[in-house]
Amino acid sequence: MSDVLKTERITFAEGVAMIIGTNIGAGILSVSYAARKAGYLPLLFWLVVVGIITTVTMLYVAEATLRTRQHEQLSGLAQRYVGGAGSWLMFASVAVNALGALIAYMSGSGDLMHSLFGIDKKLGSIIFFIPAALVLGLGLKALGRSEKLITGLMVTMLLVLVGATLLFPTTDFRHLLDGDWMYMIPVFNLVVFIYCAQYIVPEMARGLAHAPTQLPKAIVTGMACTFALIALVPLSVISLNGLDNISQVATISWGTALGSWAFFMANGFALFAMLTSYWGIGGSFLTNIADRFNLPVDNSIKVRCLAVALVALPPFALAYSGMVGFVDALYFAGAFSGVVLSIVPYLIVRGARANGNREPEWTCPKWMGRPYIYGLIFLLYSLSAVYAVLAKFDLLPAGW
């Protein structure tokens, strides 16, 4: 198979920003509310556990890309090392998760623009759509630079909010010890869906092809930074308000306690978080489409514009279509695509070790290949999918 994707150089910092930006979507603002019964410590436990297992699956993919001369996405790597069925399964996983996330960002951006500026929600989504689609059209280099710029702004805004919270007179760190470990299961499920940057690894590998040993370092650094940021938000919100006074979205809690400046800054952060996550997930979806259907998106402006339209326009249309049933279908498909993401990366790296066409500059540590590690990853993701379905049908104990 020939390369349809060109090498476009990105820096180490841009690679790290791609991971942070993709992971830090709107979910970071709802994680405090999700932990209102379990408390902060169970949340922190799952952030560590899920962060580690997600990083392991990302490093599986990283090693596979380093064993492959061609620049291929997850579906292309699955085609090469797992076979046709694995490839279509992986492509479906990428497509469903991307579609679900991009619909949420289109809808959520309209809500946020309405809250901030009082404009019509659909117009707000259109304003958000323009830079979102434009960067996808400009390619990997533009995506890396944009992720670095906006992620830097996001981190600064978040640190200002966290700093103001920690210095606020009513902040009480004893609230962090409140809660009940019995309610830790639903928290796990949300955390699984927050760490979603597996898709971006082949794009990073393409951008860091000039310095392949930086790829695993960028993954670990990006995931460590993601963990720190996701842990800081609920630490601040719970310390500030206690578990009994947490709003569904953290921006409201911050705005109520710290003042209107915090409301605007936190909502601005949420908007940037949606934008960076849109770029990461949308960019990965676009290159998977190119890889799966052999489209020369880096050699033809016409083909690239068509691919961008294919990625960007359906989520915008579906966000305002009122097709609730379709969104529900995406929810269930997304739950199972998480299981695919736990199974296929290991099969890909195993296939790459047997049939790769180049000598890798880096390989996963031996402990990552142990059967109990892979078994644990598969078990946790499978239970996550089962939980998601049971929760949707209200088959779980009251109070979860």
Automatic annotation (TrEMBL):
Report TM segments.
12-34, 40-61, 81-106, 126-143, 150-169, 181-197, 218-238, 258-281, 301-323, 329-349, 372-390
Keywords noted in UniProt: Amino-acid transport, Cell inner membrane, Cell membrane, Membrane, Transmembrane, Transmembrane helix, Transport
Instruction: Report the InterPro entries cross-referenced here.
Output: Amino_acid_transport_2, Trp_tyr_transpt
- Using the record, list the residue span of the signal peptide; answer none if the entry has no such feature: none
Cellular component annotations (GO), alphabetically ordered: plasma membrane
The name this protein carries in UniProt is: Amino acid permease
How does the entry describe its membrane topology? Multi-pass membrane protein
Q: In the UniProt record, does the keyword Glycoprotein occur?
A: no
Primary location recorded for the protein, binned into one broad class: membrane
Q: Which organism is it from?
A: Neisseria animalis
Which PANTHER family does the record cross-reference, listed alphabetically?
OS07G0662800 PROTEIN (PTHR32195), TRYPTOPHAN OR TYROSINE TRANSPORTER PROTEIN (PTHR32195:SF26)
Coiled coil (residue ranges): none
Keyword Mitochondrion belongs to the record: no
Pfam family membership, one: Trp_Tyr_perm
Tell me where in or outside the cell this protein is found: Cell inner membrane
Q: Which GO terms describe its molecular function?
A: aromatic amino acid transmembrane transporter activity
Biological process (GO) annotations?
A: amino acid transmembrane transport
